């Protein structure tokens, strides 16, 4: 009994879904049928004025293609959980130039509205996704519309059949009911494979997306690198270099004072020594910020152990011992862990942290996964320009990802995954 | 003392040899690479060796590895490690065998030559000598923090200097306190931390470092 109920329920749901698929996929044929009807009925089959409805049908198809694809993607995602990336080209920001005109990436326009409209048209026209959508709108009626039409057709047959008193017609009606109920749970199902096959971004579109992504990353990296070099230059200039000059001056003075005032000379020498120690400490901090020596000497795992030992938290490290990583990836992950431990101690007021470093397999091959968990107050998130945003960008350079789980009240768990072929 | 110096940079090696000779010690051999260091340590068996961490051929931690290797084969061989940076991680590795005769310093500790040679002699005698920066890190690390919070501030200072390897007398001189005042502090510290003190300075320092290491 229960089985029967659940089967009927799925038939009912399937029937509704089949109807939705039928309506969506038949929009384009409906437009063409309307155009053909107008031509036959209005102009009586006269060829020349008949071009007008034909033109309307073409425009209608072009205009409907994208909404149809949107709807199909939406229903596939809703019914089956399969998310098909749309892959439309993203509009560049429309900016106002100093001349007062608006630049949309293609042309200058007098108003921002014109610029946006022009950009929309050009994007629409040049986007390979437009042609893919059009193709789908043409294929859809055959690939999924016909099958989705079976249950509604069965219902129509039933209504017509039972409306007539003749027994043969009643038989047709009964058959219609059987077909409608039997086909309902399955008739909508081709929508998923068809959509996946014809709606996913083509390799060319995927490449175009990738180029956009890489361009943005390259810009990020260049800016970050330049800023880093400027910081190092400033630190050296104001720190070690200045101290060396002071040291030289002290020594010159000592040379002069040696005979006339040995006591002052000695005091100066003591100062000079203190200055040299201080500049060494400064240089050490600077070096640690550029490339931590322990990372060069021991690699990621031991460097993270050293970090954990120096951290004010009770930090435990568990690691896969035989990891061979590319130095830039090691460096990015090391500074990532350093940042996360600092955040845990400073912002989340954590007392304990656990770090694990292990191999993993990503979508494209081998990779490394670093987990940092703390018992702090949580609430961490990526804010534009913040530390975690910077970390995300640094990892993105290697196609790495940053995943943060940090509910308010804690605990925080951050996972960094970087694909790495050398593993 | 018969000393071996292992350092790949000529300026620093030469300076170190001259400094040690100025203090009346004899530099019996020098080494410039990791494998050479190990070889010299094993053949010369010096009273004490001064070894740089980073050396050719890999420019990673060759010197440290050579030192650890040599001490595995000749337990207790006195070695003082010099480096441009200090890591708790390395300090823990050096102290792990618990035999003493170990020093670990920043290179600039040589600036105070008297103290440096003092430390070197302490290491040669089987004691330990740790850079204040190492001890500061050991004392402030996450787990130490909680275990040491029962100590008073003064006891904290005394523990730090003791962990550097100094005797009660030397600690007293640094803090401008009498030796007996320092003994009182150390007795209190050992009581609070549950370390047994048998009066032998080297063993006592090792006990403190082991305690901090296991923290």
Q: How is this fold's topology laid out?
A:
The complex is a heterodimer of chains A (423) and B (215).
Chain A: H1 2-25, H2 27-42, H3 51-80, E1 95-96, E2 102-103, E3 108-109, H4 112-126, H5 128-148, H6 150-163, H7 167-187, H8 191-199, H9 203-260, H10 262-290, H11 293-298, H12 300-310, E4 314-319, H13 327-346, E5 352-361, E6 366-374, H14 387-396, E7 401-405, E8 412-419
Parallel strand pairs in A: 4-5
Antiparallel strand pairs in A: 1-2, 2-3, 5-6, 6-8, 7-8
Helix pairs in contact in A: 1-5, 1-7, 2-3, 3-5, 3-8, 5-8, 6-7, 9-10, 12-13, 13-14
Chain B: E1 2-6, H1 10-22, E2 26-31, H2 34-44, E3 48-52, H3 62-73, E4 79-83, H4 88-95, E5 102-106, H5 113-124, E6 128-130, H6 132-140, H7 142-147, H8 153-164, H9 168-175, H10 179-193, H11 201-214
Parallel strand pairs in B: 1-2, 1-3, 3-4, 4-5, 5-6
GO molecular function (chain B): DNA binding
Domain Response regulatory (chain B): 2-122
Protein name (chain B): DNA-binding response regulator
Gross geometry of chain B: globular
- Quaternary: heterodimer
CATH superfamily of the largest domain in chain B, by name, is Response regulator
Please give the share of residues in helix of chain B. Answer: 55-70%
Most extensive contact: A-B, 24 and 24 residues
